[in-house]
Amino acid sequence: MPDPTASRLLLLACVARSMPGRQQFEGFVGAGLKEVPGVGRAQVTARLDIGTPEPPAGWQRFPLVSGTETFGVVDFRIDDPEQFAPYADDLRNAMNLLALELERRAMAAALEDAQTALERAYDEMDGMAEENPARSTRSWG
Could you tell me if 138 and 129 are in contact, meaning their C-beta atoms sit under 8 angstroms apart? Predict the structure, then answer.
């Protein structure tokens, strides 16, 4: 029977998309990554303002990078490097998918902020037009 680890990593990255918040995302992904053979512990820090200290000795850090931006890091304690080695590339692929999800979330948040700012600006302009109908932005002729 083939080893299901690569499939599990892909499934982990897909299901992580449904985690509603950063804390749930970090907890779910960290717990799932511990299931990779050779990994003793995994800790996910999914945020844009990475101020996390370097991982302790014996840990490896995988940045969650999409394009030129880093959206977080995953720190792993590798207890059995020989057992872990066959899955390193699969793990990097999963990290890329997780980075894309964090990028999507950051873009969605930025779009929501921009939409809110546009609505606020429109409301202010609409209020000014009601106060001074001669300068209304709604009348074109």
Answer: yes
Question: Measured between alpha carbons, how far is 114 from 111 in angstroms, rounded to an integer?
Answer: 5
* H or E element at residue 61: strand 59-66
Tokens of 2: 């083939």
**CB neighbours (10 Å) of residue 106?**
15
Domains and CATH numbers, the chain: 5-105 (3.30.450.40)
pTM of the model: 0.75
Q: What is the pLDDT of residue 133?
A: 63
Let me know: does 120 contact 127? Beta carbons within 8 Å.
no
Given a contact cutoff of 8 angstroms between Cβ atoms, the answer to whether 41 and 24 are in contact is: no
Tokens of 133: 């109908």
What is the mean pLDDT, run by run of 10 residues, along the chain of 141 residues?
84 90 90 92 78 79 85 90 92 90 89 90 80 56 46
